[in-house]
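Quarterly update from the structural biology core.
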Amino acid sequence: MTHYSGITTDLATRKATHKRTKEGFRNWKVANNGQPFPSREEAQDWEDEQPGEHHQGGKDADGDWYGYSFDYGVRLVIKT
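Predicted structure, tokenized:
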């Protein structure tokens, strides 16, 4: 299982893209109690502090910046 975190100005499109491209997509969460960060820089600082996989870079965009995270991949179930 992999944990992924990112930032975006378009949560709906970003979520749809990840659902389509990441097998086993689950546990979608929006950071900051669902509120946008005060700036892109603060959103980026939040992302940089998160564990797991990140997409670095990205283009500048106008609008409110949100942080998000989710898990994906195969879950291992060990029966004893």
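The helical segments are 11-21, 40-49.
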